[in-house]
Specification:
heterodimer, A: 425 residues, alpha+beta, 2 domains, seven-stranded mixed sheet, B: 195 residues
Chain lengths: 425, 195
């Protein structure tokens, strides 16, 4: 037992003697594990954030186009609508007894690069994201006046808007627009609570306001003398001719496919009804290839650093002939010395794993507010999932495997050195 | 709101041009791709409605009205199979077909069509596009009962095994856990539902 104590003491001294090289190896390994684990973690988190973008909506109906296009421009505010759908189509949908609720939306204008979504109070009441979470207002109220605007949390934060600020919306999309609706400024009546979804990155007005803004506009230009003043505008009735899309909630979601088929075959107007969950799955499947490539790359990084670890261990071994001789002299068996070798390697890997976990957690905690602000990505700190634990466990296991070669060499060398015949310890 | 006048004009013009045709703009010919089929599943607590649409080639190996005795037999077998075999099942195989219907849309019958054409109960769609392009689809609808279906995360389908011509199957589902989709490749039988 004394011998073992001495051996452990000597090897600890040896570790301390080689601390700089070992720290470097540990750093390399830590960084590679952080990368591997980080990519796996982000993959699941982004997927979660992505599939939580919309929830509870059974169908999205727009002009005929592909399901991804429709999903991207209605939910993610990416790309543009191919066409609009008629107001009469929306009205006939309101009469369908299977349909529980409808959220009409109209797109096309923007506010300093953020989308203007014109809709009605149903958006606040019915739109759900994440795990069936409703939208809430962080301050103020949903729009009630014609020239009220409700802004998303991201818009409020980025442009530093407060309640009752005046906003001038721009005609068309794009960050810089030369045709602004200057004569009809809007007042911020409410600010939505942050959701971590594209809802944060938009500005909401009523369908009527969208119509009112465009009275007297022709071919994208305001005709002087024909636009309305705010007071004139309030006294008119605005029924839109067309809207961009409708979010549909059904009484019985089981009828989704049936309603979808009927809408897609509508003889009145060419429509596309899509299932948002299905379209999200499809989108994710397309992105899945990139994910796998990323994961593959980080796997290679870990393999490379483990190979680096072998190289370092073999080099060190050459310098440790004398140390091994001393260990053998104190009575350590070749088996014990080889064991110490493996132990050192696994210890390094475990320490690296621990550092990687700390580093990763710190990075996520530090970066998540920034990610939410700039990319609308909600990345939370959460316990590791099974796959991530498996990846983590794989690291010390492969370190053990990697250490086998130098350990075997040491064992053999230790036996050849032949300091007496004590094989027991 | 989109004030993209040019595309609206195009739509208006296109509708005007197409107006004399029997098929309106809202009636594009359906996609038809051999080796590919779609399966839609609407899951309730203990039951499911399943809808399969596939080019007839995938299921039968031909896309015309059956002519030979063998083809008639093939079609009869398929109908029999569709009426009795659930298109999806849970692990213990306890799903049962309560109701099934079988539709096929044959392209224009050839001149040497046998006079005693099948008298089986199947529906002939008058689909203009199918008649013109010589393609036909088969649609199978089933109502299934499966005990505790909503609790299962994994479903299996016998389609890929039974029909080797089927190279990939797009599966879409709705259920208590939400909506989702996946694509099965040849040889795959099981898929996970849930997000």
């Amino acid at each position: 037992m004394n011998k073992l104590k001495l051996t452990v003491f000597l090897s600890a001294a040896s570790l301390w003697y080689r601390r700089r090289v070992l720290a470097l190896v540990c750093l390399t390994l830590t960084l590679s594990i952080t990368l591997l684990l980080g990519i796996q973690y982000l993959r699941t988190e982004i997927r979660q954030s992505f599939t939580s973008t919309i929830s509870g909506t059974d169908l999205i109906v727009g002009a005929r186009s592909g399901q991804l296009n429709l999903l991207l421009y209605t939910v993610f505010h990416i790309g543009d609508a191919t066409n609009n759908i008629r107001w009469s189509t929306y009205q006939s949908m309101t009469e369908d007894s299977r349909i529980d609720w409808l959220i009409p939306i109209s797109l096309g204008d923007s506010y300093r690069g953020y989308r203007v979504v014109s809709t009605n109070e149903q958006f606040l009441a019915r739109f759900r994201y994440g795990n069936d979470q409703p939208l809430t207002l962080a301050s103020g109220d949903w729009f009630s006046d014609l020239f009220d605007v409700v802004i998303g949390a991201g818009v409020a934060r980025q442009l530093d808007h407060k309640l009752n600020d005046d906003l001038v919306l721009s005609h068309g999309g794009g960050r810089t627009s030369f045709s602004n609706h200057k004569d009809l400024p809007f007042r911020v009546s409410g600010i939505l609570a942050p959701t971590g979804t594209p809802v944060d990155q938009a500005v909401y007005i009523s369908l009527e306001a969208m119509e009112a803004m465009h009275v007297g506009w022709e071919s994208g230009v305001a005709i002087p003398g024909r636009t309305l003043s705010a007071d004139q505008a309030r006294n008119r009735d605005y029924t839109p001719d067309a809207i961009t899309a409708v979010f549909v909630g059904l009484d019985r979601p089981i009828l989704t496919f049936q309603v979808q088929r009927e809408l897609n075959q509508s003889r009145e107007e060419p429509l596309s009804a899509i299932l948002p969950g299905v379209a999200l799955s499809e989108l994710w499947r397309m992105m899945g290839q990139f994910e796998k490539a990323l994961l593959g790359i980080s796997g290679f990084v870990v393999i490379t650093s483990l190979v680096g670890l072998i190289a370092v261990l073999l080099t060190l071994q050459a310098q440790r002939q004398r140390e091994i001789a001393v260990l053998r002299a104190t009575g350590a068996s070749p088996g014990l010395i080889a064991g110490l070798y493996s132990l050192e390697c696994v210890g390094l890997a475990l320490a690296s794993c621990l550092f990687a976990l700390l580093l990763g957690a710190a990075a996520i905690a530090g970066l998540s507010p920034w990610l939410l602000e700039h990319y609308g990505l909600q990345i939370r700190l959460r316990p590791l999932a099974r796959e991530e634990w498996l990846l983590l466990v794989a690291v010390p296991l492969s370190a053990l495997a990697v250490s086998a070669l130098p350990a075997l060499n040491t064992w053999r060398a230790g036996r050849q050195q032949g300091f007496g015949a004590q094989d027991s310890s | 709101m989109h004030r993209n006048a040019p595309s609206r004009i195009i739509v208006v013009m296109a509708s005007a041009i197409l107006a004399p045709l029997p098929a309106s703009a809202a009636d594009n010919p359906g996609a038809h791709q051999h080796g590919h089929a779609e399966l839609q599943i609407a899951i309730d607590t203990n039951s499911a409605d399943v809808f399969l649409r596939s080019p007839a080639y995938n299921l039968l190996g031909f896309e015309h009205q059956p002519r030979t005795k063998q083809q008639h037999q093939q079609l009869a077998d398929l109908e029999q199979w569709a009426a009795s075999t659930p298109l999806i099942n849970i692990e213990d195989g306890s799903c049962n077909v309560e109701e099934a219907s079988f539709h096929s849309s044959w392209p224009k019958a050839s001149s040497h069509q046998e006079s005693h054409a099948h008298d089986r109960e199947h529906h002939e769609h008058e689909d203009q596009d199918n008649r013109e392009h010589g393609h036909s689809d088969i649609e199978i609808t089933q109502s299934l009962t499966c005990d505790g279906l909503a609790d299962h995360q994994t479903l299996a389908t016998p389609l890929m095994d039974r029909f080797p011509a089927l190279e990939h199957l797009d599966v879409q589902w709705i259920g208590p856990g939400g909506q989702g989709a996946t694509r099965l490749e040849a040889g795959e039988q099981q898929f996970r539902i849930g997000r």
